Amino acid sequence: MPTSIRLGNSEERSALCPVVGIGASAGGLEALEQLFAHVPPEPGVAFVVVSHLAPHLPSLMPELLAKQTALPVSAAEDGARVEPDHVYIIPPNAALTLEHGALRLEARDDRTNLIDTFLRSLAEERGERAIGVILSGTGSDGSLGLKAIKEHGGVAMAQDLASAKYNTMPRTAIDAGQVDWILPVEAMPAKVMEYVARIQSGAGPVDGAHDATRTREHDLLMHQLCGLIHRRTGRDFSRYKRSTMERRVQRRIHVLQQHSLEDYVDLLKNTPAEVDQLFQDLLISVTQFFRDPELFEALARDVLPRILADRAPDDPVRVWVPGCATGEEAYSIAMLLAEAPRTATLGAKIFATDIDDEALEVARAGRYPETIADRVSPERLERFFAPRPNGGWQVRKEIRDMCVFSTHSIISDPPFSRLDLISCRNVLIYLESDLQRTVFPLFHYGLRPGGFLLLGPSENVTAHPELFTAVDAKQRIFQRKEAKVSVRFPVGGLGLSGRRIAEAPQGHEPAARDQSLTRTLERLILAVYAPPAVIVRGNGVIVFVSGQTRKFLELAPGAAGINVLEMASKELRPHLHVLLREATSKRQERIQRGVSLPVDGRVQPVDIVVRPLLELGADSDLYAVIFYEAGTSLSSEQAEAEGRTPAIGDAHAAALETELRSTRENLQTAVEELEVANEELKSTNEELQSSNEELQSANEELQTSKEELQSINEELHTVNAELSRKLQELDKANSDLQNLFASSRIATVFLAGDLTIKRFSPEASQLFRLIDSDVGRDITDIVPKFAGGDLVADVERVLQTQSASQREVHLLDADVWYLQRIQPYRTTDNVAVGVVITFVDITDLKSARDSARRLAAIVESSHDAILALDDRAAIVTWNLGAELMFGHTAKEATGRTIDFLAVPGESSPFASAFAAALRGERSPPIEAFLQRKDGSRVRVLASMSPITDTQGSRAAVSWIARDITEHERDRQALRESQERFHAVNAADRKKTEFLALLGHELRNPLAPIRNAIHYLRRAVPTPTPEIQRAVEMVDRQAAHMARLIDDLLDVSRISSGKILLKKRREDLVAVVRTVVEDHRAEAARAGVSVQFTAREPLPVNGDAVRLSQCISNILGNAFKFTDPGGRISVVLERRGDTAVVRVSDNGIGMDPETLARAFEPFAQSDVHLARGRGGLGLGLSLVKALVELHGGTVTATSAGQGRGTEVSIRLPLVASAPSETEVDEPELPGGPDDRRHVLVIEDNEDAAQSLGMLLDMWGHTAAIADSGAAGVEAALADPPDVVLCDLSLSGSMDGYEVCRALRAASSTAGALIIAMTGHGLASDTENVKKAGFDLHLIKPVDPEALARIIHTSPLVHAPG
Q1: Which stretch is the leader sequence (predicted)?
Q2: Helix, strand and coil percent figures for the chain, each rounded to 5
Q3: Under DSSP, is residue 1204 helix (H, G, I), strand (E, B) or coil?
Q4: What is the CATH number of the domain that holds 419?
């Protein structure tokens, strides 16, 4: 967690505290929450959040952010002072600024960029204490505000693009180069605290040097820094204004967290990218359209009319805008010229130059944000700008063609010439004053006579009043004066400075002498201590003079000359002749010592040195002539005494003197003659010089023409570069277009105004029969492959109305839909010259739209209240169910928060669920009382869920409520019904037990009756007709009675869930197909389709009726829980030795909890939609019971709610047909025999006797016992082959005990023991089997069946 920073008292803290301006838009709430969650409790800074809010809806942002930070969070109020450790949130429908430490609110203008507006005011108010932050959002708002903050010395941050949900806003700021730090949101508070700590710590590392040693070290480091920039960029900033330079360097040191200037210079040496960044920071780009409107009014009123007056038709206006930055000022002047009446006929060319290549790229493109509408009038916007499709404005081509943008430096490149106007505003203020004075002669040279110069408010021409005169001093408009001025092309001061810095040693050096001090010292030494000297050419012409040379040189009579041989005194002249001749011939230093020079009546010994300046090159023709005074001057007497004059009394010397004098006279005569000849030569030379001057004048004119040609060539080079760049851009645009056609997969056709084809994309061949040679053909010659409207009529309508058209079309040979769009083809001048036709595949979209329409119809027709809420819990949608439930119309409810439904005096029951939904979490349903419009209360069950868009971002919250007032009554009624059901169930069990007992008691009398009838038919072979009728009557009524008893017992079986099956070999495919076909009509009524699939017959052993009942129940569920338009699939297949039936649908599906209890009785889904579709939940439980009776299994699967259900039945396959008998009557092994010993154990005398009679008649021996004990005793005494035993025997032993006893005895263990009873329940059958009986026969037993069983039974004991 970053540490806190504290300031002084309250007023000081308010005035000095840094302010963090945060801009956010779409997706910004989550980023803001993360940011403030990492802000320390007392950061010592103020935070102002500017977000794009709905203008007419209240904002919940202060409440939401207050939960994330301990700082006070409040909505901004007009006039509120900005205090540290506070967070201020912009209110809806307002524009926010910062003025004099207080917040100012104004009504929001639709054209206003809220974030840019606040950040600009923050930059002007706080300077380096302004910190701009751009978070997630769409659009470009904020980038210009960050630019203003950086211009005023502040810093800028942007959210890391990977973590921003919508990265358009931070991306725009980053691409514009306005961001110092790109960070994840959680790292921003720490970086803010680090930066604030540095600026609060006092003087920065750049301006903190005080003593002389530190000052020299500091200056050396700054020179090294300038040298690094010069080597990297070719631009020298050594004479850039020192205060501005150091302020910009200090800002970079703060941004990079460097400890000192020395560390920063070391960083620059190793990081070329930082040199580029510093270079961009030094290029202060502060420009706007029509900045200082009064100036442009004066320009249009007073200057342009004078420039345009009395001009030749072929003389276009020429304007130079040095330091044009991103081109706003150049375009402003171009617009003024375009508005002038004569510009159209004369033409105009504006040369806009800068050393910032990135800014020039922006200027050339001519694309500007929407905020320029604040500076440009609506009339000029409409005339000179075209709106861009994605926002912003494009300068029209006619204005762009007037401007030529090129890289050019006013201090190192030749100026433009023959200019009518130079606008150099706010450029010179960043240069040192001596450099400013150097630039004005360049401007004077570049302007035509009477041309005009525009300067910034803080700039003036006071250093050169002879060059310019003021036209409007207030607006800084000046006019060129006629004056002679020396101009050098180019100015080399900065280049020399740059080379000097580049050659300075790197690393840590001894303290360097101050350059101005050095120059002063050098001048002092030269003036006081250096000997007089001149620099001459080989012919003696003087080039440079140093020191006082009047003792040695003087002007000769006659025409003035600057030759040292002519100006030297006559005592020195011969020596100079000899020395200069020898020095030029031998290229060596020559010295003449002790030459006596008369000076003011005294004699001065002089040493003369002539030295070639070989340091300037071996071929240099310059020589240094130095005069050394060899000691002090002497009087005449001292000179004679030292032998510097000849002795007077010496005769020989006098003769020599006479001879010398004669010689001198002769020499003088020769010299005079030579001088006469020289004069003649000089006269000739003067004539030649005059001719030379004329030639030089002509040469100067040629030089001037050359310079003008050079300027023109520079302009042509610039224009050529511009054209080359445009050609490159055109090639790139063409390549982009080709790649767009190849990759976009959108069919596109370009048509000219006469409906001829200009171009088409490859995909267009899917809709038209087009080939490459069709370009230039009329579109009416091409037959489209789609239907839907008249294409030619649509194109002609678009050409006529100039408005776009669109319709949906359908391919003739495929189920594919396209959206056909026809738009005018417009040139850059917004002139329509054709149309562009695009076809977008909307097949999936159309399908999704149809699904959405159906879903909307379901929502609207639902009786549940279904709402959509925004991030403030305000109601966005309100369906009919909500209107019926609460009484409010959609118009009354929309825009209000969901809390308005809460019962007065009670808190909202949905606050926590809504907050969870905003976080993407789901909450359990909430049961609450809400209030209707009429004041009554309604009990609802409501749930809230997040709604996400296609990118997975939370877009809204759904709120679904069901009126459970009646449901609550129904639940109470259901509980009461269940209690009644349990009571009825208990009664039913008693009824079942009663029926079972009744069946036993009724079957017992029937047994002897059936036996007796069978006996009579066998015993009386030829009965009388009356007896025959009586027997048949009794047999018929006995059978009828048996069926009645069976029917009565079947009721008991069904109620207890036990059903007897009538199995036989069945083709499962045929059974299921019959059921599906029987349900076709029901499927049609439900609006669903049923698909049946089976490849081969699947034989099973089953009850066709019961199997059909299972399939019918499953299909019925599928019909109920599949929406109209859904699909049901019935598939039969073989898997090993198992037949599988799969019934699947795409209906509402089941959640895991519902799926787990799907086969339980009364089991249904809790989903409101399932509850509303009817049924008691018995269908699948009945299917499960029936399938398991067939020896099979049934399962259900579902991927979840809304994703359909599949029910699968698995039954064993059979290879051969089963027996036609009941499964309760298995075949018994064994062979027939003549006689069996049968023991009958029956306590009903008639039943026992009748069985005995039948056995005797069948030829068996029968023994009868009337109790269980007697039966066991008889069996042990004479072991039987077959035992017929009743279960309900009187006495101590029942039939079960009898069977167990017989099985326990070895003699009777192998006998066939048959239970004959009136108890026919499944539980009775199970008990019989467990006790050891071989067969269970239910009374009355069919005598023939009994006879067959006994005859086929095994013979256990051979007859004795």
Answers
A1: none
A2: 45, 20, 35
A3: coil
A4: 3.40.50.150
656 in any annotated domain: no
Determine contact, residues 1093/1079, Cβ cutoff 8 Å.
Answer: no
- String of DSSP letters for 883-900: HHHH---HHHHTTSBGGG
Same domain, 328 and 381: yes
Banded model confidence at residue 384, pLDDT cuts 50, 70, 90? very high
Tokens of 1166: 């809790």
Three-state SS for 608?
strand
**Cβ-contact 635, 602 below 8 angstroms:** yes
Taking only the tens place, the pLDDT of each residue in 1312-1359 is 999 988 777 777 888 889 989 999 888 888 788 888 888 888 877 765
Q: 232 and 153 in one domain? A: no
Q: In this predicted model, what pLDDT tens digit does every residue of 1090-1108 receive, in sequence order? A: 999 998 999 999 988 778 8
* 3-class DSSP string for 39-64: CCCCCCCEEEEEECCCCCCCCCHHHH
- Two tokens, residue 1279: 């072991």
Domain extent for 1091: 1064-1212
Beta bridge partners of 840: 819
In order of 313, 920, 921, 940, 1107, the CA distances from 916 in angstroms are: 76, 6, 5, 20, 49
Contact 354, 360 (CB under 8 A): yes
DSSP 783-821: PBSEESS-HHHHHHHHHHH---EEEEEEESSSS-EEEEE
Would you mind telling me the total number of residues written for the chain in this entry? 1360
Which is it for strands 130-134 and 19-24: parallel, antiparallel or unpaired? Answer: parallel
CA–CA separation, 474 vs 457, rounded Å?
8
The secondary structure element, H or E, covering residue 642 is: none
Is the separation of the CB atoms in 154 and 131 below 8 Å?
Answer: yes
Among the candidates 914, 932, 963, a domain finishes at: 963
Final residue belonging to a domain, choices 1212, 1236, 1267: 1212
Q: Give the per-residue pLDDT at 1170.
A: 44
Q: What pairing do the DSSP bridges indicate for beta strands 1335-1338 and 1312-1317?
A: parallel
- Chain Cα centroid distance, residue 557: 89
pTM as predicted: 0.40
pLDDT in tens, 950-963: 666 666 888 898 88
Q: Are strands 865-869 and 875-878 parallel, antiparallel or unpaired?
A: antiparallel
Distances (CA, A) of 469 to 472, 476, 481, 486: 9, 10, 7, 19
- Quick check: helix, strand or coil at residue 660? helix
Peptide bond into 574 cis (omega under 30): no
Residues 6+ apart with CB under 8 A from 1325: 1224, 1336
**Token digits of residue 968:** 């609550």
- In degrees, rounded to 5, the angle at the alpha carbon of residue 669 between the alpha carbons of residues 665 and 671 is 110
Least confident of 16-30, 79-93, 612-626: 612-626
Which residue out of 51, 52, 152, 236 is catalytically annotated? 52
Instruction: Output the domain CATH number for residue 937.
Output: 3.30.450.20
Three-state secondary structure call for residue 503: helix
1282-1285 vs 817-826, strand pairing mode: unpaired
Q: Which residue has the tokens 């169910």?
A: 881
Cis peptide bond upstream of 490, omega within 30: yes
Domain for residue 1324, yes or no? yes
937-948 and 1205-1212 as β-strands: parallel, antiparallel, unpaired? unpaired
Co-location of 1084 and 1145 in the same domain: yes
Of these residues, 85, 116, 141, 1286, which one is catalytic? 141
- Let me know whether 1069 and 1188 are in one domain: yes
Euclidean distance between CA atoms 152 and 126, whole angstroms: 8
Distance CA 601, CA 453 (A): 61
Residues 6+ apart with CB under 8 A from 599: 551, 633
Q: Catalytic: 52? A: yes
* Residue 25 appears among annotated catalytic residues: yes
Structure tokens at 827: 């040139």
Q: Do 1053 and 1086 meet the contact criterion of CB atoms below 8 Å apart?
A: no
